[in-house]
Hints:
Blueprint: H1 3-17, H2 19-28, E1 32-37, E2 42-47, H3 52-55, H4 61-65, E3 82-85, E4 89-93, E5 102-107, H5 119-128, E6 132-137, E7 150-155, H6 160-171, E8 173-178, E9 182-187, E10 196-200, H7 203-216, E11 228-234, E12 239-245, H8 252-255, H9 268-271, E13 274-277, H10 280-285, H11 288-298, H12 302-314
Parallel strand pairs: 2-13
Antiparallel strand pairs: 1-2, 3-4, 4-5, 5-7, 6-7, 6-11, 8-9, 9-10, 10-12, 11-12
Helix pairs in contact: 1-2
The structure holds zinc ion.
Amino acid sequence: MKLEKKIDRFTKDQTRNWELARKNYADLGSIEKRNFVFDGFRVVAQFNPGRIRSSAAKTDRTSISERPCFLCKANRPEEQLGIDFQGKYEILVNPYPIFEQHLTIVGYEHVPQHFDGRLRDMLALAEALPEFTIFYNGPKCGASAPDHFHFQAGQKGAMPVELELNDLLKSNAELLVSLPSTQVFALAESYLRKLIVLQSTDQGELVLLVEKILQLLPQNETDDEPMMNVLVNFDGAQWQVLLFPREKQRPCQYFREGREQILMSPASVEMGGLAILPRKEDFEKITKADLADIYKQVSLNDEAFNRIKAKIRND
Length: 315
Ligand SMILES: [Zn+2]
């Protein structure tokens, strides 16, 4: 049986027989959303109280070392089953969903969230699951279990960026590299986030180019990799890699108090234009200006991004 068909049966089964998943996926149907229209794109705010555990997750070393890892098999609920992928990963149903189909793809080993050496697996997953977008949150860019390697996946088109990208690439992007099998673009500044897009039919060439670009991204001395979120999908012929270089884990609004606080902790999904707000008050009060400000803070600064673009173009 094809993996996608297996996953389809598996998710139906899990959301029928596992009470936590059943309830949370049923609740998703009545979830509240707000649309914010910008110039040529939109941001959708989603009020999702179940995500508080992720948005407010303490990801510092001490907090992580003091809690049992919820992605290790030994600590997972008995009802949570998995499907093997190439003997390296187990595909699970995420019990706190953002999308109607939300998977967590967990490495078998308890090893830290680290992108190096994982891109080929990500491309293979996208190819095996062409109805899904696979995403990676860096250890300081939204991963709530930075101690256990994992990807996530959601059904294609669930994030605004996926629906807007074709138009944006035509009207509002800069072509940095054009090879017979691969193109690299950078989205214009007006997109609020910094975004590099690679489209390729050649897996080897794509891997080399992504690795080259990652080397150009600035990295904090104490970190093991540049701060980033990565989205990958496959359309039957071509892979698409969306790379969001980051500046900060969380915006200043996250740390404020009282009315001034907005509990939004940007990860891949937020960078993709779907802003998850676990608190009702934030969902109600957040404005276009807040969203623009939050994206600006957590995205790589203009100067570094311009430098990287110039290097990609000239290489
Ligand atoms: Zn673990």
